[in-house]
Amino acid sequence: MLTANTKSGKQVCLGYHYRKESLISLRNKEEFICPICGEGVFLKLGNQRIYHFAHKSGGSCREFFENETINHLEGKRQLFQWLLRQNIPAVLEFYDKEIGQRPDIMFQYQGEKYALEYQCSPLPEKDFIKRTTNYLTNEYIPLWIIASSHIHKKRRNIVALSNFDYLFLRKAPTENYFIPSYCPENRHFHLLESIQPISIKNALVQHSIYQLDNFILEELLGPRLSDSINMNIWNTEKESFILNWMLHPNPKQNSFLHEIYQRNLNMFLLPPEIGLQVPHSILIQTPPIIWQTYLFMDLLADKQPQDSFTLKELNFHFKKRIHRKEIMLRNLPQLDSLNPITAEISYLKQLEKIGVLTEQGENIFKLERKILIPTSNREKEEAKLHFNQKYLNMLAKQ
Ligand SMILES: [Zn+2]
After folding, report:
1. Among 54-63, 227-236, 307-316, which range has the highest average pLDDT?
2. Residue 367 C-alpha to ligand 1 middle, in angstroms?
3. Residues whose CB is under 5 A from ligand 1 (ion)?
4. What are the strands of the beta sheet with 3-6, ordered from one edge?
5. What is the pLDDT of residue 49?
6. What is the DSSP string of 104-126?
7. What's the 118 CA to ligand 1 centre distance in angstroms?
8. Among residues of the chain, what percentage have pLDDT more than 70?
9. From the centroid of its chain, how far is CA 200?
10. 93 Cα: distance to centroid of ligand 1 (angstroms)
11. Distance 62 CA to ligand 1 centre (A)
């Protein structure tokens, strides 16, 4: 904890610059109390950890603060100073009595009140959601920033993202999604952009690193994000996903596999139109290749060119799959107003780009050409080659 009161009610905030000598002399003449629970706290001035206050005895308050790591203390102090340098009114460890919450930093920006949470340790998903909802209903804009050390890079441009990591997902005013992270050791923000999930965990991303001193709040809230996808990596990862998925089946996959075999489909002989990168596919937890196959079976497979279907039908099938837990959605508490059907509609728009269908006025889609299912590996490779030559560049832009 970095903020405490003196017995006379004066606030001491270690987020500001203090010299050690002045803190030592302050400690000699003052007693400190926790502004939240009113219990006594020590001022710790060791060389190992950053200067901080520590509760003398128990209580829930102690549990809340005493698990703070050095990274957490250091991170929130740096972010606090970063806001002050931009003349943004900010309060470190602000305690809002009315809602019973204490964001790491509360700040005011462009007429809005923000609750910044810098998260270094995992938090149960339900707590994360509860805190976020509580902020939103009390007119705070939550701004969750994850510690960069949580970002698990697997290969270049491929990261493993847990459900917890996805909770930090934000949307830029440009409609693109990103996950903001911060590293106090390197004093930089690390933004994950253009996130395209491949499997439940793995996603294709772009990394952007910004030094704290060359970056302003406005850029964090509305970063200029890259919107292009490396289609060659996408295609390679898609193939390896299918291989892995088939080599390590789990019981949940059985109903899917059973259904596709009944329709004479085979994971290794899917057409290149299934498994496209799609804006908003981040809203669905089920891998894109799976939900796109469902959409194909539900709406496209049995139709002939010139046949049409409506958005209502799309919605009906989507809801049915969700109800049966064949399609799972992501929990994205900071984006709770978004309808996940947007992902499916985006897929239809991609199919429109490549001439499979056209949108006919309000919410009606007409099939223009049938998606052909390859019957051999050779056919599949030929279709892929042809498809890539024609559409690869077009699909690289989101
Ligand atoms: Zn306390």
Report:
1. 307-316
2. 64
3. 34, 36-37, 61
4. 11-13, 3-6, 32-33, 40-44, 52-55
5. 72
6. SEEEEETTEEEEEEEE-S---HH
7. 19
8. 98
9. 13
10. 11
11. 6
The angle subtended at Cα 365 by Cα 285 and Cα 383, nearest 5°, is 70
CA 122–ligand 1 middle distance (angstroms): 22
Residue 395: what are its φ and ψ, rounded to 5°? -85, -10
Q: Residue 57 pLDDT > 90, yes or no? A: no
Residue 327 CB contacts under 8 Å (≥ 6 apart), including other chains: 284, 286, 290, 291, 294, 318, 321
Is the CB of residue 157 less than 8 Å from the CB of residue 242?
no
What confidence tier does 59 reach under pLDDT thresholds 50, 70, 90? low
- The architecture of the domain spanning 71-221 is 3-Layer(aba) Sandwich (3.40)
104 and 93 in contact (C-beta within 8 Å)?
yes
- Quote the ligand 1 centre to 87 CA distance (angstroms): 29
Residue with tokens 């056919």: 379
Please tell me the distance between residue 313's alpha carbon and the centre of ligand 1 in angstroms. 55
Domain boundaries, the chain: 3-68, 71-221, 231-396
CA angle 154, 155, 160 (to 5 degrees): 30
Per-residue exposure over 195-211, b if at least 16 CB sit within 10 Å of its own CB, e if not: bbbbbbbbbbbbbbebe
Distance CA 351, CA 277 (A): 11
Q: State how far the alpha carbon of 397 is from the alpha carbons of 78, 229, 350, 351, in Å.
A: 36, 6, 10, 14
Say how many Å lie between the CA of residue 67 and the centre of ligand 1: 13
pLDDT value, residue 141: 96
Q: What is the pLDDT of residue 8?
A: 85
What is the number of alpha carbons within 13 Å of residue 128 lying toward its C-beta? 24
Distance 10 CA to ligand 1 centre (A): 16
| Distance between Cα 324 and ligand 1 center (Å) | 47
Rounded distance from Cα 119 to ligand 1 centre (Å): 20
Mean pLDDT, the chain, as a whole number?
92
